[in-house]
Design a protein that fits this description.
The complex is a heterodimer of chains A (about 350) and B (about 260). By secondary structure, chain A is mainly alpha-helical. Chain A is built from 15 helices and two strands. Chain A has a two-stranded antiparallel ribbon. The termini of chain B are far apart. By secondary structure, chain B is an all-alpha fold. The longest helix of chain B has 29 residues. The chains are: A mainly alpha (about 350), B mainly alpha (about 260). At the A-B interface, helix 4, helix 5, helix 8, helix 13 and helix 14 of A face helix 2, helix 3, helix 4, helix 6 and helix 7 of B.
Chain lengths: ~350, ~260
């Protein structure tokens, strides 16, 4: 961290007067720190474009956790056993927690959660395309755990070494929980595939529907990925989209075999020469349509998110009004305030317990 | 506890009692799950899921124990997924639809304080399983009291709108309060024997602790014109059948499957 510490400044050019400060020295120090695999921290100088890219990526990652709760929460009330229900509830809870970590990481870059949520709700920031597909049966919960969380982990493990410290540290925590969910999803599908003929068919159908959208989670092919080269140079990304996608396919094929399920790709076969599985062409038209907002659930997901936010506005306003009265009464004891509002309400709950 | 006194209640009595408590927890958990992804803040999505998960944990222990003691050998899942609406024994309070956040917080406030007192008393149960569950659950429901209490105060003493909605929530929920404290032959016998708790003896303390929250919040204790009842005999509200249908849908679609 020596290099990073050396160019850490109290007021960075980003804060105020970029015209009067020569950023060349900062840029050199930043480049050297990234080259030396050091972590960039919130108070370090960083290029504006690096900051903007990270805000975009971390925010979209956070949004994906929050929107991603919906397809799974859709099945909580119908989970077929109490044990499965408990597992699913814990998982959705973890996702809310991951969203919160990631919003915090984004906030270290000088944005706020409110601002980011506003961008999500108005469609100015995106979330992972995968969550625009519907969960039609209970088996979808397993397919999401196995394939979607599996793809997420393949993407995210390298992010644990991302050059931006707060993001990298959030990913370490998140990956631990994600890999647990992934195993639970696999185990759910295994139970179905070892179950009745109907359960097995349900599992196969879910895998058929989630396989291609999962491969799309790695993003467009390398030659069409706008941000890839720069993100790799900055060590935000460590591997290309296509590399990670290949790694994921190579992991999934033997897992599908041990589940006794097939993957819906007639072109999928082992390539001895490459030492990898070859696989069929992805429908990039579908990918771009979903990304543009024209997938099966885009409208529904954002509408539900916005409705929760709008219908909850009076609750948030109440909390804010209460907090501001509370602050006033603690500093100004002459304020009569609300009956019973003695200025120590934060503690009274604990006394009651 | 004398040996004679322990023999005064049967395993079937304890099973019936565990079923009531288990159904309360199961059904309220199901309602809270409906909030997840619809709450006013992400923190509340998390809190609702967290409380629902605690309650589900209580339900699993209690239903499993009920099935073991009643001689039918039914599992927690048999009891949750294969009974009809008329066979559930929860109090009607827990099946009230969520309504707005104020109503849900009112329902939480009522139930959390009730279960805090109940489980605290039940920690002394002569029945080791009930005592063990109560020791764990009383810690969890103390958190639920904090959560509901702090929201009741924030809403009650927040804005005009939030005060109005919180009071409306309390007014809607209050007719269902009395049933929680109803005494009957079963709970009196269990209480006398040291196995269970007659909820009637918790009412005064409940009035006091909930009353303190409402007064801090500047809210009024409602005086309802009617009182709900019947849940312990399987006589539920009209909102209950759709809740049970949703809960049991997948399980019933694939009878005999294991998951």
């Amino acid at each position: 961290m020596a290099t990073a510490a050396a160019h850490r400044t109290a007021g960075t050019p980003a804060d105020g007067a970029p015209d009067t400060v020569d950023t060349t020295a900062y840029q050199h120090a930043f480049d050297a720190a990234v080259a030396a695999d050091e972590r960039v921290e919130p108070r370090d100088w960083m290029p504006d474009a690096y900051r903007a890219t990270l805000v975009r990526q971390i925010a979209q990652h956070a949004h994906s956790e929050i929107i991603g709760m919906q397809p799974e929460a859709n099945w909580i009330t119908r989970a077929p056993t109490l044990r499965r229900k408990a597992i699913l509830m814990a998982k959705v809870q973890d996702e809310a927690g991951h969203g919160l970590y990631l919003y915090s990481a984004a906030e270290t870059l000088g944005t706020s959660r409110d601002e980011l949520l506003d961008k999500l709700h108005s469609g100015r920031q995106k979330y992972s395309s995968i969550f625009n597909y519907p969960t039609l049966t209970w088996a979808d919960v397993g397919a999401i755990g196995w394939l979607v969380d599996g793809a997420a982990i393949t993407n995210q493990v390298p992010l644990c070494r991302c050059s931006y410290g707060p993001y990298a540290r959030a990913m370490v925590r998140i990956c631990k929980e994600e890999s647990f969910h992934q195993r639970q999803g696999y185990e759910l599908l295994l139970a179905l595939s070892n179950g009745t003929a109907e359960q097995r068919a349900m599992a196969q159908d879910a895998v058929n529907r989630w396989w291609w959208p999962s491969l799309m989670m790695f993003g467009p092919p390398d030659d069409e990925s706008q941000h890839s080269a720069q993100s790799m140079a900055w060590k935000i990304k460590r591997h290309s989209n296509d590399e990670l996608r290949q790694r994921f396919v190579d992991i999934c094929v033997p897992q599908a075999e041990s589940l006794g399920l097939t993957l819906p790709d007639p072109d999928l076969r082992w390539n001895e020469e490459r030492g990898h599985y070859d696989f069929g062409a992805i429908d990039w038209t579908e990918f771009w349509e979903v990304l543009k907002g024209n997938g099966p659930c885009n409208e529904q997901r954002i509408t539900q998110r916005r409705r929760a936010h709008d219908e909850g506005a009076w609750v948030r306003e109440a909390a804010a009004a209460y907090a501001s009265k509370h602050t006033r009464t603690t500093t100004d004891t002459a304020d009569t305030g609300t009956p019973g509002d003695t200025g120590n309400t934060a503690e009274t709950g604990a006394n009651r317990a | 506890m004398t040996v004679e006194a322990v023999e005064a209640v049967t395993a079937a009595d304890i099973a019936a009692y565990a079923l009531r408590l288990g159904d309360d927890a199961l059904i309220l958990s199901q309602r809270l799950c409906e909030w997840v992804t619809r709450a006013p803040t992400i923190e509340e999505d998390l809190a609702m899921a967290n409380i629902a998960l605690d309650l589900l944990g209580h339900a699993r222990t209690l239903l499993g124990y009920a099935g073991e003691l009643d001689g039918t050998g039914r599992s927690e899942d048999d009891l949750a997924y294969t009974r009809t609406e008329r066979q559930f024994r929860n109090a009607l309070l827990v099946e009230i639809p969520n309504g707005d956040f104020g109503l849900s917080i009112a329902r939480q406030l009522v139930f959390a304080h009730y279960t805090r007192l109940l489980y605290t008393a039940l920690e002394e149960s002569a029945d080791a399983v009930l005592a063990g569950l109560a020791a764990k659950a009383s810690k969890e429901v103390a958190y639920h009291c904090l959560h509901a209490g702090q929201w009741a105060v924030r809403l009650g003493a927040g804005t005009e709108e939030s005060h109005r909605r919180m009071q409306a929530g309390l007014d809607q929920v209050w007719p269902y309060v009395a049933e929680l404290f109803d005494s009957d032959e079963l709970v009196r016998r269990l209480d006398g024997d040291g196995t269970g708790v007659d909820p009637a003896r918790l009412r005064a303390e409940w009035d006091e602790s909930v009353g303190a929250v409402l007064s801090e919040a500047g809210l009024t204790v409602p005086a309802p014109r009617w009182r709900a009842g019947g849940g312990r005999e399987g006589l539920h509200t009209e909102a209950f059948a759709p809740l049970v249908a949703e809960l049991q849908a997948v399980h019933r679609q694939y009878p005999g499957a294991s998951w």
